Sequence to fold (135 residues):
Amino acid sequence: MRHPRDMGAAEVTQFLTILANERRVSVSTHNQALSALLFLYREVLGIQLPWLDEVQRPNRPRRIPSVLSKVEVTALLGQLDGEVGLLARLLYGTGMRLMEGLRLRIKDVDFDRQVLMVRQAKGGTASQLDALATL
Fold:
């Protein structure tokens, strides 16, 4: 146990490396630890450490969304029947959230205009969805 003032680049870099490699902390946790060290040395201890500015922050891994093809969606929706199948088709065709679809009532469906009225949508607003693709 040593005071941070007595530690140098090697110890701080080693600590950040241990966080990343051995403890496998998330990118945000690693960035938070680095920011805390920068604050400690600059603001609390009043020590300017130019090498600490050059420490590489880890990058978040790119997440590639998995999207189903038209054939896969058709096969999936074809396996569902009854109320569950109807709800799945409505959610997929309109982009509604699950609770928006579950709260639909028959009076929310306008067959003449081919519109669905979504009440209690996210954000507390009501909106109309063009239901042409689903009805």
